[in-house]
């Protein structure tokens, strides 16, 4: 049997807490494709590596 990679998945609520944003913002990021996620039933799970990468991205200038 093939080994599965050691990937940790976070809930939308956990991602929102880590990123210090609302759950709705996390859903927007997932639906826009900016934050990769896997759907399990009716909920989403986000790889912790994707959250780390998103937090390290530079913030776009507004205006």
Your description of this structure?
The protein contains 3 helices and 3 strands, in the order βααββα. The protein is an alpha+beta fold. The protein has one domain. The longest helix is centred in the middle third of the chain and has 10 residues, at 23-32. The N and C termini lie far apart (53 Å). Residues 9-57 form the Helix-turn-helix domain. InterPro entries: DNA-bd_dom_put_sf (IPR009061), HTH_17 (IPR041657), SinI_DNA-bd (IPR010093). It comes from Microbacterium trichothecenolyticum (Aureobacterium trichothecenolyticum).
Structure keywords:
Helix-turn-helix domain protein, three-stranded antiparallel beta sheet, alpha+beta, DNA-bd_dom_put_sf, 63 residues, DNA binding, SinI_DNA-bd
Tell me the major beta sheet.
Answer: 3 strands, antiparallel
Number of helices, where a helix is a run of at least 4 consecutive DSSP H or I residues: 3
Class from helix and strand fractions: alpha+beta
Q: What oligomeric state is this? A: single chain
Radius of gyration: 13 Å
Portion in strands:
15-25%
Helix content class: 40-55%
Give the overall shape: globular
Strand order of the largest sheet: 1-3-2
Please report the distance between the alpha carbons of the first and last residues.
53 Å
What is the residue-mean pLDDT, rounded to a whole number? Answer: 89
Tally the beta strands: 3
Helix and strand pattern = EHHEEH
How many structural domains in the coordinates? 1
pLDDT < 50 stretches? none
